[in-house]
Amino acid sequence: TYIFPSPFTRDYYVKNLQLSPSKPVVLPYFVPLNKKRRDNRKKDYFLFAGRLSEEKGVLQLLEVFKALPYKLVVIGDGPLKKQVLKYKNYENIEIKHFLPQNKIFFYMQNAICTIIPSLWYVVLPMVMLESFANGTPVIVPEFGTFKNTVIKGKTGFFYEQNNWEDLRVTILKVYEKREKLSGIRENCRKEHEEKYTQEKHYKALLQVYKSLLK
């Protein structure tokens, strides 16, 4: 059998490698349940957390925010570090470099949204699952795996892929209703608990093994 982390990835490889439709299994990654969730959120900034590299779209995101009055916190390291650091001169942009997971989770818990401006196809972004685990919605491009893992208006918000003006408009709309996102944050927690815990992953993996023994 073949195990894929998302339906999009499964369908892509089935089509392009001509795999047998009966062989592939979808088994998402997991994020351990975060028991130290906070509800006293500041909700005054957006978050980017990830590798500072071309495919992540971080430079395009920074270009959008340098012309916005809202705050962006960037956490990460990578080959574009020097270019990213140039944006720390903007008062609304805070660069945090690499941080341990518990620190990243703290920033996620207190963010309005986690923004994942990917330029290329992704398998299943861990940062998205981590954001759900921390009860924080995401803003993502409407393509690839995002289309079948994010529920529009319930666990996150879409913008048109590579349309940075549309991303800017989406950020504006989300910021305006930032104080009314409690229901969406609860949806994100439920999405994590129903699909992306270690217990769910373990049980599903055992089922895969059992199916091979029949």
Concise synopsis of the structure shown:
With 214 residues, this protein is α/β, with parallel strands linked by helices. The chain has helices spanning 7-17, 58-65, 81-85, 101-109, 126-133, 164-176, 182-195, 198-213, and strands at 2-4, 24-26, 45-49, 71-75, 93-95, 114-115, 138-141, 156-159. Strand 1, helix 1 and strand 2 form a beta-alpha-beta unit.
- Walk across the major sheet and give the strand order: 3-4-5
Main beta-sheet strand count, sense and barrel state:
3 strands, parallel
Strand content: 5-15%
Broad structural category:
alpha/beta
What is the count of helical runs?
Answer: 8
Order of helices and strands: EHEEHEHEHEHEEHHH
The whole-number mean of residue pLDDT values reads: 93
Number of strands: 8
**Unreliable sequence segments:** none
Taking all Cα atoms into account, the compactness measure Rg is: 18 Å
| Distance from first to last alpha carbon | 13 Å
Helix content: 25-40%
**What is the general shape?**
globular
